[in-house]
Request: fold
Amino acid sequence: MSVTVRVPAKVNVQLAVGAARPDGFHDLANVFLAVGLHDEVTVTPSADGLRVTCEGPDAAEVPLDRTNLAARAALALAGRYGRDADVHLHITKDIPVAGGMAGGSADGAGALLACDALWGTGASRQELLEICAELGSDVPFALVGGAALGTGRGERLTELEVGGTFHWVFAMARRGLSTPAVFREFDRLAEGRDVPEPVASQDLLDALAKGDPEALAAAVSNDLQPAALSLFPELADTLAAGRAAGALAALVSGSGPTTAFLARDAEAAEAVSDALGDSGTCRTVRTASGPVPGATVV
Reply:
């Protein structure tokens, strides 16, 4: 018997970042939108203890030991319910690795839901979300999907209404960016100035609720973008190419280095995708729309 869970990538349509806290984290106002790029996590009982395997684009960059969030999720659920995590976790990757789209977090949420179903633990949604929050700031949203405002370090979620479908183009960079390194650069760039408390933009929330891509484009923001561009200046060329191709908005996705482009509709997204593919400024280009559901047993 095995259980497979499909789990989506995310784009941050707003990422407001506060000053560093004493614990090293930052308070956030993080507006997530789940988009239709998915990983799948398949969990099968194993006689050899906990094992992780992976296939798909950039699979060679995915750790296969117990640092993998999928493995950590299985161990956390097993520990809570007093059982051994004797499972084979197989990850089929389609979300970019180290791309700012929460692929690792998605795998953690997928493994958690899959192990819960396989073992029949009967864990409540709240228990699963608590484990997700222990695993990482983006993991709870991968479980929930749709659209949500994340506060605290991003793990406390308020689900949001979305009045339509938004069409996106994602350009994958030629190398990765470390999220901790981007936050360190944010702190360096913020030295000597007051960093305001992070607050969700009401204009942005209204645009999501109305399903209005042009209003959303006027409101998207990412406080980590200057830090990502400081560490990876070539991303500016990709952003410029997408804008020149007619994207309504262009921004770094989360901590990067994937760049995200909001298009008016599916046809416009294909035009932006084609232009970015021809621009020579990125490795690969994908289109996806959202919101889509969170982690789902298939």
In short: Residues 103-119 form the longest helix (17 residues). The longest strand covers residues 26-45. The chain has a mean pLDDT of 96. The chain has ten helices and twelve strands.
